[in-house]
Amino acid sequence: MTCEKEDGNFLVKFTPKVPGTYNIKVTINGDNFHKSPFTVQVKERRLEVMGELDLKGQTLQSPGGIAVNTKGLIAVADCDGHCILVFDKEGKLLQKFGCRGENAGQLSRPASVSYLNDDEILVADQCNDRIQRFNVHTGNVVKTFGKRDGGWRVSVSGKRLY
User: Which residues lie below 8 Å from residue 126, measured CB to CB, with a gap of 6+?
Assistant: First the structure.
């Protein structure tokens, strides 16, 4: 995942599926980043999920991404439902936000979600070609990154080394 910081630099986040050594290659508009490729070692992380999510009558149409913060809050991106659902660590629905649309705070097929800190998430708003930053407690949009009419394209790829 990538996002542009306020100082014009880019933040690149790569989440591997399994522990190991990865070779990371970063390109900006098709050109190799000057420090790319580079190698990182990823340690094992465990997540234990107990119980079920209480949807309170909501239906997850197409859950895509899921993220858990250090306090146990669970954020789920529902791609076809065009929304984000936030659950507490017991699985109780706390918040549902985002609706289909193009304006800030609205989503069109959110593909993935990641916690920025315990109170904010980044959402890959797939069909709006942007990243949106939300407060998980209020559901309010904090900031948006990217635009539909083109702009920058950053790509990150990683390959596990054996």
Answer: 79, 108, 109, 110, 111
